[in-house]
Design goal:
CATH architecture: 2-Layer Sandwich
Distance between the termini: 57 Å
Number of domains: 1
Low-confidence stretches: none
Largest sheet: 4 strands, antiparallel
CATH topology: Gyrase A, domain 2
Order of helices and strands: EEHEEH
Mean pLDDT: 90
Strand content: 15-25%
Shape: globular
Helix content: 25-40%
CATH class: Alpha Beta
Radius of gyration: 17 Å
Number of helices: 2
Strand order of the largest sheet: 1-2-4-3
């Protein structure tokens, strides 16, 4: 798997868009995006991570953590992200048919 440096775009004062794509959709890049999304949730000041197709929106509180720190954490974790897919979760959704 070729590791490219993701492009970071600051979206206002409290969000960074991480673009890992170097061309068409790539399963390995998507696995990195999902892992990065999970890992960043543990960084104090990160409010939300929103994975997309080979990209990730990271929303943070700029009063609790500096954008530079978030960006550096993204770069550090991206270099360690990758590998196999995480196991999925099973969700039971009760369904009732019929009625009156």
């Amino acid at each position: 798997m070729q590791s490219i440096e993701p492009r970071l775009s600051f979206e206002g004062a409290g969000a960074i868009l991480v673009d890992g794509a170097a061309g068409p959709f790539d399963d390995d890049v998507q696995a990195r995006v999902w892992k990065l999304a999970r890992d960043l949730k543990f960084l104090d000041g990160v409010l939300e991570t929103v994975p997309g197709m080979n990209n990730l929106m990271v929303v943070f509180d700029p009063l609790r953590i500096e954008a530079f720190v978030v960006g550096q954490s993204i770069r550090d974790l991206w270099g360690r992200a990758g590998g196999g897919a995480e196991p999925g979760a099973i969700h039971d959704v009760p369904v009732f048919y019929g009625g009156e």
